[in-house]
Amino acid sequence: MSPARFLALVLFVIATAPSFASTVDAVAQGQGTQNCLDSQTNFGISASALALCSTGFTQGGLSESISAAARASYGDLGVSGSVSISGNSLASSGFFGRALFGASFSDVLTFGVSAGSISIPVDIAGNIINFISQAAAQITFGVSLGSTTVYAISAVATDLGPSSAQVTGSTGITNVLIPFTGGQLRLDAGIAGSVSCMNGGGSFSCSSAADFFNSARLLAATVFDTSGNQILNPSITSESGFDYLAGVSPHQPAPIPVPASALMLFAALLSLAGARRLKKINLIRQA
Known about the structure:
Blueprint (H helix, E strand, L loop, with lengths): L2 H14 L9 E6 L3 E8 L4 E10 L6 E11 L2 E14 L4 E18 L4 E9 L2 E7 L1 E11 L2 E11 L5 E6 L2 E9 L3 E16 L2 E11 L4 E2 L3 E3 L11 E3 L21 H27 L1
Antiparallel strand pairs: 1-4, 2-3, 3-6, 4-5, 5-14, 6-13, 6-17, 7-12, 7-15, 7-16, 8-14, 9-10, 9-13, 10-11
């Protein structure tokens, strides 16, 4: 299942889920062949958070370990999944293990101006790991904000033939510009994917994992008017109560720049210290 299709499923579950407590944090975990679902929704404020994962599609007689996890809160989503299978099978090639994971939230933002755009930096960090022998691993993963696909990857790794990968966007920080009218914006964010292992017949082993449990984070947003000019001290309220102007802390804080004047002063002090040392050595020699 592609990231887009799985994310559509996640958003569909949100829209059709029954009303739960007003708490908006959701966490779900699954092991082995269990399914898991944790949904907390409040339709009274048109905002919801959901974490969904499932594991399964396994075959007996194999050594296997499958897990998936997902978490969702406003401005901060994360998922991870792993499949590890080994054994000796005479069956034809096919999927022996799969982990699905997804998390999302929906919110409504109200602005102090009737129209304009909001720029939201999305910070994505994670890693994908594959160890395979006489097998193949497939990973799909995607992050979306509004109608924009911020980052997506669909990769197949195998020692039976060439590997392939299709990548959209990149990890790190990506700014997403979203227009709004009528003074409001419905914001949907989602992160979803799957990890699978399959054998090539005979003795095989496959370990595949995607760990984006610390992604994706929405950093401090900026608001612009219809002419593209930044609005200073803008007004944004959200039905969830999340502060989009403050956002979430980035994965790695940006280094504090050193002023050029400070660098010049440091260089001058080093030069002065060297001159004094050389003068001292010459005095000792003359003595």
